[in-house]
Amino acid sequence: MSDETLFVDTNILVYAHDRDAGERHQTARTLVKKLWTELKPPSVSVQVLQEFYVNLMKKSVSEKEASAAVQDYLNWYIVDNDRNLLTSGIEERLRYKLSLRNGLILAAARRAGANVIWTEDFNTGQDYDGILAVDPLS
Is 133 exposed, middle or buried (0-12, 13-18, 19+ CB in 10 A)? Predict the structure, then answer.
């Protein structure tokens, strides 16, 4: 994976922490655990971490554990939300006919210099002008 610059979407992180997600939990947990050993950390956005925290609160994860997990992921490369990201996200949404949420994810991945997004929410295998969508759980 050393030649990839990776952006990780919310659902992969949620599965890695949701013990009730069965096989998806085990797979995501193994994949995410491996990312901590990479020389170049993956990237996430503030949006991803916000969604991650909210989703963990809906699952059987304690608030203390969810907060600690967010703090851990702040050690990865973080793409901040700002007006330029919003503008770029809207442009990505219009270009690829995505939801605004996914347009913002794609814009954040692009800002991070990612060439791969791990996600379940995009068309797996589709190249979004240099960013490949991959569902690592399939």
Answer: buried
CATH number assigned to the domain comprising residue 88: 3.40.50.1010
Residue 62 belongs to domain spanning = 6-134
**What pLDDT score was predicted for residue 39?**
85
Does 32 have pLDDT greater than 80? yes
